[in-house]
Amino acid sequence: MSVITGITRGGVEWTPSFVTSLNQSICIGCGRCYKVCPRDVFELLERDELDLEEIEDADDDFDEAPGMVMSLRDMLDCIGCEACSRVCPKGCLSHEPQALAA
After folding, report:
1. Which residue among 3, 24, 37, 91 is least enclosed by CB atoms within 10 Å?
2. What is the pLDDT of residues 43-74, one digit of tens each?
3. Pairwise CA distance, residues 75 & 67, whole Å
């Protein structure tokens, strides 16, 4: 399987790693990933808007926590820069290289 690769301006090959999931059960809704993302991949939601049954590993305190939580709005718009993971204080995001579309 061939993965998507690119070349930097300096001529070095680079393999982007695209966002594949976001663990909302540990997200604190700080918005850092939202602010750093250049492509509208994320959106902030009120915690009470979420369906807790869809969130894996949600603990008992999650449904009582006030405030915001991050959600993936459009994963297909991700460019694989991983800036979101570098600024996330909780390590909520997972990334993987993606195969070339046929």
Report:
1. 91
2. 999 988 776 545 555 555 444 556 899 999 99
3. 23
